[in-house]
Amino acid sequence: MKRFFLAALAFLTLTLLLTGCKKETASDDKIKIGLNFELSGDVAQYGIAEAEGAELAIEQANASGNFDKEIVAIKYDNAYNAAETSAIITRLATEDKVSGVIGPAVSGMAMAQYQAGNQYGVVMISPSATADAATLDANGNAYDFAFRACFIDSYQGAAAANFVARDMEKLKAVVIYDSGSDYAIGLYNTFSEKFTALGGTIVAAEAYIDSDTDFSAILTKINGEDFDVIYIPGYYNQAGLIIKQARELGIMVPIVGPDGFDSPTLVDLAGASNLNDVYFTTAYSNLSTDPDQAAFIEAYKAKYGKEPNMFAALGYDATNLLLAAIQQAGSSDPAAVQQALLNISGFKGVTGTITFDEYHNPIKPVLMVKLVNGEQAESIEVQP
Predict the structure, then answer these.
(1) pTM, full prediction
(2) Alpha helix stretches (DSSP H) within 28-170
């Protein structure tokens, strides 16, 4: 009886081991890429566009024949909520067993993900988390597994100041910013520092909060000041309203902003006729004649029936960076992918050629786009 029991136990153990092996093999028959994006909430325009860019890149990779396994996207909506963002990275790393994660779009959500994701050892690439410290731990060192496909705020803030002071020759600025946004505060500080170093003066700095929709008090107050440019380091949802209300009050000076302006909703909120003499820094413009970018635009239009914006392009590049690392590593294991990412140099994306610095930030150009009646009319490269 004892011998029978031991034999049965051995058989059961072997069965469980084989079942476990079969399950592991089944989980390895696909390359899984997590998408953790703001698909609802105040900045959904960013997350939706980036998810679309990511899914296009995955579709093209599957059609290319360059991968011996099917690539699948596992997509979640973090709803622009830090707690949900953190829960999603845990799920992607521990349950879904992804090779890497693309997203979130904005810095606050990326920072909510990076620490947890780094502990799990899963590669994360945010297309557009621009806050300088987003990829850094408490000691100022880059998280091993945290990367981004965008330039940082200090880079674009300094480039905007350079453009205003040198190219536009405007030296008296008003800044209108969201006092509760790390993105806005970082851009404001960098712009101000560079602008004053170039001989400019910040005539006034007026703060609002995220929920504000009526900016008449701020605009009426600054209307009595002597200034020749407004800098709004914010997202499209507030910037559109500020621009509309400023123009309606007769404030016609140039208005300059960051990449957060890049959304079709900016036109909806501000009105096309109010979007003249408006400029914003960006990593991407559809005005480029680069053939790879033209191919991306056509593929995106064919899939989604609309023109891509910067966020779609960044989502596309971030995903292709991850896919290039998987291909270079010859493995979808996150640790191998992370090492391959560290060694990527001169990656040609539609938002520029990317090489990572020691903090896992890409070294790439900044573009300044000029709007005419809400349409991109001119794009020039600017330096920080």
Answers:
(1) 0.81
(2) 44-64, 82-94, 107-120, 153-162
